[in-house]
Amino acid sequence: MSPRVTVAYLVGLALLLVAPMFLYPILVMKVLCFALFACAFNLLLGYTGLLSFGHAVFLGSAAYVTGHALKVWELPTLLGLLAGTGAATLLGWVIGSLAIRRQGIYFAMVTLALAQMVYFLFLQAPFTGGEDGLQGVPRGTLFGLDLAEDMNLYYLVVAIFAGSFWLIQRTIHSPFGQILKAIRENEPRAVSLGYDVAKYKLLAFVLSAGLAGLAGATKTLVFKFATLTDAHWHTSGEVVLMTLLGGMGTVFGPVVGSTVIVTLQDELADKVGSLVTVIMGAIFVICVLAFRRGIVGESLALYRRMIGQKP
Amino acid sequence: MTEIFGVPVQALFGQLMLGLVNGSFYAVLSLGLAVIFGMLNIINFAHGALYMAGAMLTWIGLEYLGISYWWMLVLAPIGVGLIGIAIERLMLQWLYKLDHLYGLLLTFGLALMIEGLFRDLYGVAGQPYSIPEELSGAFNLGFMFLPKYRAWVIVASLSVCLFTWFMIEKTRLGAYLRAATENPKLTQAFGINVPLMVMLTYGFGVGLAGFAGVLAAPASQISPLMGSNLIIVVFAVVVIGGMGSILGSVVTGLSLGIIEGMTKVFWPEASATVVFMIMAVVLMIRPAGLFGREK
């Protein structure tokens, strides 16, 4: 990480540690789960140039598997999280290997269709509880700490988020990450340089799916339930929106985007009812038409213009 | 009663017809997507929402203005086409120079807006629409009863597909369109107004979706959510068939409808997922799609 990013990261972390004094911890945890989800998605869209329109399925499948592992198999919390993340990673490998056979717009359509297929499977499968979802998932304990206590869970969620965020940064700045960027910028050239592009794309996809799964698994712990909404294509659209609004291909963009969207939904839900969808759609349209670099991207561009640097 | 593979003939042919009806919708919708993709290079995510808008307009027309089904069959596609033209002029035209993904994202946002608006106005419950008098009842074919309306949907959809094929392949306007798809700059240099053609193409493509919506109105419950579930299946149809040819879209749409109908008879649990499974298989064997060319 560059020094500036490191400073921002540490400041953010410090803020997160004191945040529960001022904010409702469940809301912050929800924001963190979606922020991790969006960061995982950004790894794929922002740094590899692959638009997956079915990412919710990884969030949803991990949520279900973790919920099932904790509630029915009564596994320890840590193993439950691992099971969920592992399931999402595996599913990512299956869907990824099929989807990377097509490019661009087709890639988006294929991921969306495959995700819809898994959604229908969840709808029918007995272990998901169908429309009712999986409810009353116990949080369990970790190192003797009772996670039913919101504050204990809060620090676990912060640790998961901070660790994953750091992992994503390491990935982006590793040689592997540089190759991903090369693929995003010019795929034929990356091929001609001798890189096995399909393999790198698949790896990025699996990594992104796994991290999205971790977000879903954590979310189950926070809310103590897993529902079909997590796997629905609306959620896939939401994560695209969060990334786009915050700024795709920027380090903190997805975090900012998910904070704005989750807070907005939380505020608006009981005020405007079903118009929330319209507002989300309108933000989408405005972002695409006038605000393509997102909040973070536009701010950075403005800052660079102010100090007289070329963008 | 005679049986085939242990299934009564009546039920089998009934599902076959239903499959053909669904297949007709797939065909018209994927045709619209293909026409738009050919010219604008974007995937129109709002297609499902505009199909729903077509059905909703039909219902609104009868409920509030007393306009009959037959008039709406003409008026609703035109209305939806005009909405499309407004979308193209106001928004889409600014995105042609950018990555194609932005077109997808923009139309996704529009789909959310259209769907959300209708949901706010009419709720998620379906509105019933009765079959027009001329088309109610059924033909007795001896081995089965064929509801007239189902036959009408299939005939009307196929006629529209044929009309589209004729327009694009056999008329002068269609020749301009194909030229503009192949090489917009050169075509414009020959004095053809390409931006106008692009606008009309989008209007026509979504008009097709609106037409399918009118056909769907009496055949199913009219609900604000009817489009979004359908459009994802149509995406899978498009991936399976590829967007290379008009005939390809129609054949793929119809056959997938039939396969889906047959799955409902022989393996009901898989009927919601069978199209996606076929898509996965096609991706493994022929990634470019059955009628597609890898660009």
Please explain how this structure is put together:
The complex is a heterodimer of chains A (311) and B (295). Chain A is 74% helix and 3% strand. In chain A, the strands form two sheets. A two-stranded antiparallel sheet of chain A has the order 1-4. A two-stranded antiparallel sheet of chain A has the order 2-3. Chain A has a domain at 19-232. Chain A is mainly alpha-helical and 311 residues long. In chain A, a hairpin with a 2-residue loop joins strand 2 and strand 3. The two termini of chain A are 20 Å apart. Chain A is globular, with a radius of gyration of 19 Å. With 295 residues, chain B is mainly alpha-helical. Chain B has helices at 9-40, 47-65, 69-90, 100-122, 148-170, 172-182, 184-189, 194-219, 226-241, 246-266, 274-285, and strands at residues 3-4, 7-8, 138-140, 145-147. A two-stranded antiparallel sheet of chain B has the order 1-2. In chain B, strands 3-4 form a two-stranded antiparallel ribbon. In chain B, helix 5 crosses helix 6. Chain B is globular and about 65 Å long. In chain B, 51% of the residues are buried.
Care to give the gist of this entry?
Chain A has 311 residues and is mainly α. Chain A has helices at 3-18, 25-48, 56-71, 77-99, 104-124, 150-173, 175-185, 187-192, 197-223, 233-246, 253-272, 275-290, 294-306, and strands spanning 134-135, 141-142, 145-146, 225-226.
Head-to-tail CA distance between termini of chain A: 20 Å
SS-based class of chain B: mainly alpha
| Average of the residue pLDDT scores of chain B | 88
Helix content of chain B: over 70%
Overall average residue pLDDT of chain A: 89
Question: Per DSSP, what share of the residues of chain B sits in E-state strands of 2 or more residues?
Answer: under 5%
Query: What is the 3D form of chain B?
Result: globular
The quaternary organization reads as heterodimer
Bin the helical content of chain A.
Answer: over 70%
Poorly predicted ranges of chain B: none
**Order of strands across the biggest sheet of chain B?**
1-2
Number of strands of chain A: 4
Order of SSEs of chain B: EEHHHHEEHHHHHHH
Q: C-alpha Rg of chain A, in Å?
A: 19 Å
Number of helices of chain A: 13
**Main sheet summary of chain B:** 2 strands, antiparallel
The order of strands across the largest sheet of chain A is: 1-4
State the low-pLDDT regions of chain A, or none.
Answer: none
Which two chains form the greatest contact, residue counts included?
A: A-B, 41 and 42 residues
Characterize the main sheet of chain A: 2 strands, antiparallel
Summarize the helix and strand pattern of chain A as letters. Answer: HHHHHEEEHHHHEHHHH
